[in-house]
Amino acid sequence: MQIAIDGPAGAGKSTIAKRLAKESGYIYVDTGAMYRAMALYLLRRGISAEDKAGIESACEDADISIKYIDGEQNVILNGENVNGLIRTQEVSNMASASSVNGKVRQKLVSLQQKLAESTDVVMDGRDIGTTVLPDAEVKIYLTASVKVRAKRRYDELIAKGEESDLKVIEQEIRERDERDMTREISPLKKADDAIEVDTSDMGIEEVVNAINGIIKEHGR
Ligand code: DC
Predict the structure, then answer these.
(1) What residue numbers bound the domain in which 146 lies?
(2) How much is the pLDDT for 219?
(3) Pocket test for ligand 1, best of 96, 105, 139, 177 (most atoms within 8 A of CB)
(4) 70 in any annotated domain
(5) How many domains does the chain have?
């Protein structure tokens, strides 16, 4: 069984996918974390998002793998657990910018497909229903308005005690949407057979219930 959840930044994909995985006993695969690990590697090496050759050679040197610790996905970059380092705005923006590269995508898509070969998964990202798992039994396109997504991210940062500017976050989300949706290879878009869920006016429980309903109807 494969459940694919795609959608723009801040739509609530990871929160919802984690809950669904816990309830069903499936493995949760956060594909964004892999693009983030790659972005961290590039930032550390001072390779810019425009340096195509640099990024392509980095693809050869950066070994990215996944390890589950207490049921939680951890990303390992050349032997180092980088889970605690990939959630900054700098890494978010670099992940969005570097994920347009075909070699980066090829490398990570193949890792994602291998993970889903031998186990039931709930996988979230941008191209899961369209490219990574085109035969997934259930495909959800989770979305929400830019304003709502920016406010969620802002509240998250404030709760963590970090300084934050709602206007800047909103602008960054707009830019990431634009890049993720207009890139040449596997842009973010709703798969033809995906069901769209707009979470702008929904709480977490409501979204989980709605998706569980969809799984019952369309799942195996
Ligand atoms: O889901 P996220 O915010 O952690 O993803 C970070 C970036 O990685 C996102 O802006 C685009 C890229 N990404 C992608 O291109 N394809 C995926 N399947 C997941 C993420």
Answers:
(1) 2-214
(2) 67
(3) 96
(4) yes
(5) 1
Residue 209 in any domain: the answer is yes
Give the separation between CA 196 and CA 139, rounded to whole angstroms: 9
- Nearest protein CA to atom 13 of ligand 1, as residue: 32
CB atoms under 10 Å from CB of 159, counted, come to: 8
Rounded distance between C-alpha atoms, residue 215 and residue 14, angstroms: 17
Helix residue ranges per DSSP H, the chain? 13-24, 31-45, 52-61, 89-98, 102-117, 146-159, 166-182, 204-218
Q: What is the average pLDDT score of the chain?
A: 95
Residue 219: inside a domain, yes or no?
no
Q: Is the pLDDT of residue 220 over 90?
A: no
Ligand 1 centroid–CA 125 distance in Å is 6
**Residue 162: predicted pLDDT:** 86
- Candidates 6, 29, 35, 110: which one to mutate for ligand 1, based on the most atoms within 8 Å of Cβ? 35
Q: What is the largest CA-CA distance in the chain?
A: 48
The pLDDT score that the predictor gives to residue 104 is 97
For residue 32 and ligand 1, the question of a CB distance below 6 A is answered with yes
| Domain containing residue 60: CATH number | 3.40.50.300
Model pLDDT for residues 11-20, shown as the tens digit of each residue: 999 999 999 9
